Inverse folding.
C-alpha cells in the first residue's frame, strides 16, 4: 500500500514522498516501513514501540486512533496511509 | 454557521468606505451587513512573519475594523523573502511598527493595535480577551499550545496555519463544537526531533498561500458564511500542488477542551515543550535550538569561541573541525571542514573513528545543531569534543567579514 511521507521525515526515506509497503494491518505495514527505512523508527515510535503522540496516522481520511481496530485495523493495497507530524513554522522561520 | 461577531449595533460605513468595499457590497453573501460586521470585527494576528504578513494585509484590505499584532521581533533582511508586510525601508524597525506602516498605507480606516511583546502565559489572556478571532501564525510549539489553550479557555476561534519547507497545514481550532490543537497533537515533539524551519528552510510563497487560507477562514468566521475548517485539517503540498482535508475529532480525553479538563488555566509552556524560553534578543533559531552563547561548558561540551578556533587553526594545532550543516548550506559559506549533516552523525559516526581521541570542534550555522552533534559524538566515546559557539555566523561577524551570512 501507499504511505505518504511528510516533508520533515523525507530525509529518512531518501527523499521519497510516497513509499509502497506490503502488509495486512496498519501495524504490520508500519513495522515493515521501519525495517525498510530504519532511520524513521525513532521518529515514529517511542523506545517502547508505541506510536509517538505528536505523530498522527491517517488510514485514508480517518485518524487510526478512532478506528475500531486502531493499529490492528486490516488494510488492503488500495488503502493509503498518511503520516501527519506536528509542524510549527510560521513567523520568522 | 453563527457569526463570530456579537450582534450589537453594527457601525455605519462612510461614503468613502462604501466606495472602497463596493466589490464586497455587491456580493450577496457579504453585502452591507457583512461589511459592517467586518468593520466591527477585532482580529488578533499572533506573529507578523511569513503567515501573519499576508493574513494581516488581506484582513486590512477586506475592511476588518481592528487588527491586533503581536510580535517582539525587528525586521531583518532575511525576512523579506516571504514577509511581504515589511519592506527594505523598514529593515531594523520593530515588526509591529513596520507592519502598521504597510497596513495603514493599504487601508487608512483600519485601527491597528500593537502588542510589541512576546506572548506568554502571564499576558495571553489579557491580550486575547478583547478580540473576536485569533489567527495563530507563530513559529514555535510553546506559543502554539499557549494560543490554543488561551483560545479554548476564552472560547475564541483560532484560525490556525503552519508551514514547513513545501508543506502547510490549516484548520480552525478552539470553537465549542470542534476539536482543538491538543485534540490533534496532545503533546509536542521533544526538542530536536523535528527540525526547525531555520534548519529546514521554507519556500517563500508557501506562508503566503497558507496565510491567505487563514485570512479566508477568519473572514468566514466573522461573516458566518460557508464551512470553516472546524473539525478538518487542510494539508497543502506546494510541490505536488495538492490540497487534502482530513477529518479531525474532538478528543474526549483532551486535557483542555474535553468534558473533564485538567488544564483550566495557562501553564508553563516552555516546560511543557521541554525547551528553554525563546530569548527576546537574537535570531529565533538560537532560542529554539538552545544555542549556547557565552557559557564555557554546556551539558559537558566545552564552548569554543571563533577567536579561539582561529588561533588554533593558525597555530596549526592538531584539531579536527566538523561541519554538521546540510550540503546546500555548505555551498553558501564554509570553513573547508568535512561535513556530515546533524541528522546523519549518529549513523555515520564510524567514518570519524580515526578522530576519536583528537580534539574535535563541531560547527553549524549558529551553534545549536553542532551542540547536538557534539553530544552525540561524546556519547559515542569521543574524548575531546567542543562546540563552536555562534557557528559560522559568528565566524563571519568576527573573523571573516567578507563571508556571506544567511
Amino acid at each position: 500500500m501507499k504511505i505518504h511521507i511528510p516533508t520533515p521525515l523525507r530525509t529518512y526515506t531518501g527523499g521519497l514522498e510516497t513509499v509502497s509497503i506490503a502488509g495486512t494491518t496498519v501495524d504490520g505495514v508500519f513495522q515493515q516501513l521501519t525495517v525498510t527505512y530504519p532511520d524513521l523508527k525513532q521518529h515514529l515510535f517511542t523506545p517502547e514501540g508505541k506510536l509517538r503522540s505528536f505523530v498522527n496516522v491517517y488510514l485514508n481520511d480517518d485518524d487510526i486512533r478512532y478506528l475500531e481496530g486502531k493499529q490492528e485495523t486490516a488494510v488492503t493495497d488500495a488503502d493509503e496511509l498518511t503520516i501527519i507530524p506536528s509542524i510549527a513554522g510560521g513567523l520568522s522561520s | 454557521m453563527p457569526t463570530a461577531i456579537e450582534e450589537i449595533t453594527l457601525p455605519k460605513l462612510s461614503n468613502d468606505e462604501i466606495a472602497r468595499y463596493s466589490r464586497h457590497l455587491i456580493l450577496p453573501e457579504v453585502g452591507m451587513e457583512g461589511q459592517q460586521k467586518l468593520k466591527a470585527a477585532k482580529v488578533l494576528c499572533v506573529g507578523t512573519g511569513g503567515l501573519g504578513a499576508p493574513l494581516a494585509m488581506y484582513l486590512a484590505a477586506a475592511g476588518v475594523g481592528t487588527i491586533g499584532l503581536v510580535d517582539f521581533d525587528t525586521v531583518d533582511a532575511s525576512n523579506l523573502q516571504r514577509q511581504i508586510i515589511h519592506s527594505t525601508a523598514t529593515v531594523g524597525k520593530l515588526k509591529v511598527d513596520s507592519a502598521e506602516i504597510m497596513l495603514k498605507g493599504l487601508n487608512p480606516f483600519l485601527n491597528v493595535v500593537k502588542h510589541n511583546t512576546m506572548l506568554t502565559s502571564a499576558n495571553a489572556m489579557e491580550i486575547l480577551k478583547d478580540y473576536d478571532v485569533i489567527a495563530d501564525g507563530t513559529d514555535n510549539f510553546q506559543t502554539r499550545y499557549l494560543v490554543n489553550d488561551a483560545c479554548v479557555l476564552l472560547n475564541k476561534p483560532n484560525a490556525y496555519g503552519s508551514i514547513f519547507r513545501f508543506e502547510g497545514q490549516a484548520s480552525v481550532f478552539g470553537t465549542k463544537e470542534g476539536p482543538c490543537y491538543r485534540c490533534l497533537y496532545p503533546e509536542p515533539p521533544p526538542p530536536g526531533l523535528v527540525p526547525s524551519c531555520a534548519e529546514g528552510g521554507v519556500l517563500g510563497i508557501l506562508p503566503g498561500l497558507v496565510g491567505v487560507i487563514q485570512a479566508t477562514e477568519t473572514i468566514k468566521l466573522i461573516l458566518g458564511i460557508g464551512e470553516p475548517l472546524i473539525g478538518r485539517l487542510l494539508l497543502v503540498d506546494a510541490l505536488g500542488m495538492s490540497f487534502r482535508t482530513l477529518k479531525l475529532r474532538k478528543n474526549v480525553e483532551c486535557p483542555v477542551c474535553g468534558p473533564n479538563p485538567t488544564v483550566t488555566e495557562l501553564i508553563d509552556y516552555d516546560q511543557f515543550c521541554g525547551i528553554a524560553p525563546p530569548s527576546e534578543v537574537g535570531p529565533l533559531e538560537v532560542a529554539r535550538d538552545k544555542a549556547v552563547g557565552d557559557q564555557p561548558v554546556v551539558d559537558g561540551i566545552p564552548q569554543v569561541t571563533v577567536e579561539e578556533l582561529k588561533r588554533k587553526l593558525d597555530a596549526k594545532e592538531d584539531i579536527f573541525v566538523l561541519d554538521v550543516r546540510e550540503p546546500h548550506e555548505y555551498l553558501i559559506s564554509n570553513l573547508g571542514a568535512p561535513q556530515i549533516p546533524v541528522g546523519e552523525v549518529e549513523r555515520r559516526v564510524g567514518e570519524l573513528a580515526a578522530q576519536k581521541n583528537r580534539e574535535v570542534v563541531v560547527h553549524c550555522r549558529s551553534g545549536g545543531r553542532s551542540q547536538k552533534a557534539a553530544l552525540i559524538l561524546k556519547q559515542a566515546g569521543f574524548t575531546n569534543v567542543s562546540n563552536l559557539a555562534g557557528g559560522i555566523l559568528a565566524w563571519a561577524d568576527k573573523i571573516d567579514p567578507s563571508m556571506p551570512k544567511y
The first strand of chain A starts at residue 2 and ends at 4. Residues 20 and 90 of chain A are 31 Å apart (CA to CA). DSSP finds two helices and five strands in chain A.
